[in-house]
Amino acid sequence: MSARTRNYTPADLDGCLAVFDTNVPEYFTQPERAEFAAFLNDLPGPYLVVEDGAGSVVGCGGYAIEPGTATADLCWAMVRRELHGTGLGRLLTEERLTRIGRDARIRAVALRTSQLTVGFYERRGFVLERVIPDGIAPGLDRCEMRLRLTGLRPSRTRS
Is the C or the N end of the chain the one with fewer CB within 10 Å? Predict the structure, then answer.
């Protein structure tokens, strides 16, 4: 599938909410929709959309730097449910990690997800640090994960 990432604009609000809706109730709960909409209206950091070849929003996700820390927090990532497994989530995650990696101050990337996507993030080097059973909703555990960036960046040498 032909797809590209770009920066979110307010015109993408409905497209992102539509992506969210395709992931209810398996990955998100209906009550979280209002929280997601509020997040989109007051972004704490960069937010990206994935659009298909026709220009439709098929995924979205962002990150924010936690104040006073050297940690970036991945937030509100999702791909249209019928497009899971097509590489769009990987594309979105890699783009966010690339952008985060450009900031030498950042030493780690954190995220909170459910047990349904732990394996996806583990394959990208994240380590599961804590599980809170039913921490998101009944049947959806809150899984806290972290990726340490130290040692992953190429060293810079002088010539």
Answer: C
